[in-house]
Amino acid sequence: MKFELARQSFIPILTPLFLAAVVAPFATQGNVFAAAAESGAPVSGSDLSGGWHYVRTPNPQGGPAAVSIMHTADTSKSDLEFAGLTIRCGDGGTQILIILLRAFPLRARPHVIFGRAGHETQFEGTIAPPGTAILVPGNAANLVEGLWQTQADLFVRVTDGPTSVSGVVALTGLQPAFKALVANCASQ
């Protein structure tokens, strides 16, 4: 009982940490939130169905904004180091990032495993700055519009040598959130 209450107390802490891990690379000059408010562009545009969040962060150096959807981990089913999942606009399509609360060396190539035992899909990830984000290769559309359509929860395991971090992210509402993301990627 005490452990469950402790896990639930992390929920208010995880969301800001999750957002900081994703937004930090774009906040190198000035206050990115103030810049967004001045431009009229939403930083945290809206909460979408199923707990998904749409985030549009202007690039303080000019150029395209960072646009993504994200969902925090189900803390009752996840390791404490597993923060959640982000899908963002990227070069050549959409990209999936696994967000952790621990940093990996930028040269690490952790394995990302989606699904339950016997129904797993494995990828070799790369570390994205600031070191707490693991970029999964390929276009996110292949998974979102394929394997993940029929699942209620996404089971994720990240392994790098002796290190293993597992988590669960609810997929309810992902399809409309992903469509909103793709529509905004095209307008960049």
List the SSEs and their pairings:
Layout: H1 2-8, H2 11-23, H3 32-39, E1 46-47, E2 53-57, E3 66-72, E4 82-90, E5 93-100, E6 111-114, E7 121-124, E8 126-128, E9 133-136, H4 140-144, E10 153-160, E11 163-170, H5 174-186
Antiparallel strand pairs: 1-2, 2-3, 3-4, 4-5, 5-9, 6-7, 6-10, 8-9, 10-11
Structure commentary:
There is one protein chain. The protein has 188 residues and is an alpha+beta fold. The strands form 2 sheets. A 7-stranded antiparallel beta sheet has the order 1-2-3-4-5-9-8. The chain has a 4-stranded antiparallel beta sheet with strand order 7-6-10-11, with no helix packed on it. A hairpin with a 6-residue loop joins strand 6 (111-114) and strand 7 (121-124). It has one domain: Invasion associated locus B (IalB) protein (Immunoglobulin-like, Sandwich). The model is unreliable at 9-43 (pLDDT under 50). It is 24% helix and 33% strand. It has 5 helices and 11 strands, in the order H-H-H-E-E-E-E-E-E-E-E-E-H-E-E-H. The relative contact order is 0.18.
The CATH topology name reads Immunoglobulin-like
What global shape is seen? globular
Q: β content, as a range?
A: 25-35%
What low-confidence regions span 5 or more consecutive residues with pLDDT below 50? 9-43
Structural class estimated from helices and strands: alpha+beta
Overall mean pLDDT stands at: 80
Q: Output the strand order for the largest sheet.
A: 1-2-3-4-5-9-8
Helix share, percent: 10-25%
- Name of the CATH class: Mainly Beta
Instruction: State the CATH architecture.
Output: Sandwich
